[in-house]
Amino acid sequence: MNRLTLRHRLLLLTLLPSTLIAIALVAYFTYSGIRTLEGELRTKGLATVRYLAPISEYGIIAGQFDNLHGLAQATVQETGVKAAVIVNQKGRTIAVSGHVSLAAEDLRRSLNEPLQVGETEHWVAFGAPVRRSVGESDVLFEPLTDSKALPAETIGHVFVEFDKTEVANKQRQLMLRGLMIVLSGLLILAALAIAMADNLARPVMRLVQAIHGMSSGRLNTRVPATSSGEIGVLENGFNEMAAHIEEVHFSMQSRIEEATAQLAFQARHDALTGLFNRREFEHRLEKALAAVHAGGEEFTVLFVDLDRFKQVNDNCGYLAGDELLRQIALLFQGRLREEDTLARLGGDEFSILLANCSGRRASQVAEDICNLATNYRFIWQDKVFALGASVGLTTVNRKVRHINEVLAAGDAACHRAKESGRNRVCEVHAAQRSDHRQDSSNWASRIANALAENRLLVEALPLRSLQRGSDKYLVELTARLNEPGQPTVALAALSDAAERYDLAPAIDQHLIETAIAALSRARQREKELYCLVPLSRASIGKRQTIDFITHSLNRRNLSGNRLCFVFSEDTLTLLTSHAMEFASQMRTLGCQIGLDDFGGGLSSFSHLRTISPSYVKLSRSLTRELGGNRASTALLRAVQEITSDQKINTIADGVDDLETLEQLQSLGINFAEGKAIAPSEPFDVWLEGAVMRLAWRDETLKNPDAG
Fold first, then answer.
1. 20 to 30 Å CA-CA from 217: which of 135, 263, 305, 624?
2. Which residue has the higher pLDDT, 16 or 298?
3. pTM of the complete model beyond 0.85
């Protein structure tokens, strides 16, 4: 039953009750018709014998057997009469016509009234008594014996047999007509039922097919809304629902496509800067390496690590750090070609794939990236930060077999640039890279061991006066970490790691102690030695630094007038109150103050009033393009005029050629340091050679007998 379709159910529901009712009605009326025919035959038979009995009376009484025989023949002529028999009082047949089927016993029966005397499948017989009639004349001649009338005398019987064949034929015809009526009615009813079922089922089947189409993904499926009533409401409702589902599907599909595209973009790009991420960079690096092995041109990979990025995060928060990374990304992107790939590997580390670029061109791009980072100033609220970049360069050729070699070589080159003093470019070939690199988590023990084992090499950076001769010696102290079997680490890189583990004050105290000891020796030889000592941000913010300087000077009975402490503008910007307090305390001791990386920020000139320094080390961004950039020359001239008016000495850092030295001298710069002046060398060696030995020679020339 559950497997029947709606059409079949409607047909079954319509035809079954109608068929049963029709059969019942036809059967009832057919049966009634058959009974009626039988009743009519019985009525006719009784009527015939009733009619035949009175008219046979005279013939029986008078013995006119011919008349009786004629009556019998006349009766047989009647429709359906099979035979007619007239018997006398004794049951003897006196007239007969037709083929009699009644037995002799039936003919001798005494009947009191007309009735049916026999019946078989093919015939039925009726009989009636023939009675003598009593007339009035008879009454007159007969004596009255009783007041009541005497019963009439039976003088014979009449029997009539009827053939049932005609009745059976009529009954058969009646049944056939009933069946025909039933069949005709059922056919008409079936046609009507089929039409009604189709009329009801067709729109429902259209709805079912439409639903199957929708479930198969054909969302544009619709049904003709041609029906009325509830089916029409369903058709219109389905079309509206389908249209809404199609609209929602397309909207959802569009959203899915957008989300998929966004996920694909996020999988390949850095969420913060929008640059390619490490995964996509390595994928492109693999493709580029495969192209080189297939005969393509060599390419170069740059690894860029921002300098002093941690200061921005520590002092202004991660929002400032994120904004800095976004701006740096735009800055680097503007220098590169469309075919180059710039990616952010994580944190403040970037990587650049220079397609079809190697040799001098790649080195120039690396220098440009380094200069962009150096000249860039990040402004956040009221703070200005000078940054820089350590750039590692590695060239990829057919000798490189896997990108891990490229990544390791670039990382080693970037690390070497960081340890060499930051803000520079270092190159390491994949085949020449070092297989061992100290983990940054080991910096604390490395620095502590270096201080304990005296492996922190203090170096001298001599300064020369550019304006007039002077007998005084001006030198800046710096330091390098010297470990067996490892490249030396410059002070700039060393300070970053030392500040992370709170060891920067220990390095600063080592430099201070070295400088004060040298000043004590120079005083003994009556030489004017002036030492510039760089201090980290951690030392500026601690009271212990002031106490250590005070104790060291008092222990050697020295005045601090030949000792100058130098710290960067960043430190002054971030620790203004601490820096001002430190400067005030140093001036109480007679010490001088110097500012490093001066002129690179917007607030440089305000610092001159805040801290009143004796020396300012000019930012390399002012002196790097001195020859070919009029703006740099004009800015440097303005800086020199302002500092000169306030009697502040200017120092040019990193002067490596004589041409730049001459230009600085013409602009009025007071001091210079760099390869054009003297190379850096161990401080003890420089002190013995440049100060102590010359002092001994001067004393020998004054007192020959002392030798």
1. 263
2. 298
3. no
